[in-house]
Amino acid sequence: MSDFDGANHSGSRASQAVPPAVRDRVGEGAGLVGDKANDVAGTAREQAADVAGEASARARDVAGELRGQLQEQARTQTQRLADNVRRLAGELQDMSERDGNDSSAARAVRQIADGGHRAASRIEHRGPDGLVSDLQDFARRRPGGLPGGCRAPGLRHRPHRKGRQVRGRRHRRAGARSSRLRREER
After folding, report:
1. CB-CB contact of 113 with 89 (8 Å)
2. What does the pLDDT average to over 21-48?
């Protein structure tokens, strides 16, 4: 036999030399280690789920706080708008009453003032949601009736395009003339 074969036999003799009680204890220890590893993994999963739940709850709380702050700001701004409309309507009413005459212009200004008072009351009564709803209804009924910044993209009114092109050509021509004059001066 070679030395290699002898070394192989001596290793098998060493495993046979371990008493069965030790082998049983090692097996129990390995099982215990496996059980504890599973317990640790389970605890880690539970804690991760708890952390995720807490993070989600906190995110909902922050979103709710933010929503509340935005609603309060919208109510404040809507109240300011109603106050400003009411103030302007009052000024128009004072202006119509100052003259003391019953001209058609004074009657028209009074009607505008009355409409302003009604609009201010409506804005104040309905709040921000009502204001948005009114604007949406108006936009549906009269799509071109809102100022340029409020129109839907792609639906812009473009009557000034030609004017801009003409102005642009004038500026380009003026720039070409001034550069030609500079070349001639040299």
Report:
1. yes
2. 84
**CA atoms within a 13 Å half-sphere pointing along the CA-CB vector of 24:** 3
Radius of gyration of the chain from Cα atoms?
42
Compute the distance between CA of residue 112 and CA of residue 93 in angstroms, rounded to an integer.
Answer: 8
pLDDT tens track for 57-79: 999 999 999 999 999 999 999 99
**Letter for the amino acid at 125?**
H
- C-alpha 180/C-alpha 12 separation (Å) is 103
Q: pTM to 2 decimals?
A: 0.50
Of 160, 157, 161, which Cα lies nearest the Cα of 143? 157
The owner of tokens 């003799």 is 13
Please provide the size of the chain in residues: 186
Question: For the segment 77-92, what is each residue's pLDDT rounded down to a tens digit?
Answer: 999 999 999 999 999 9
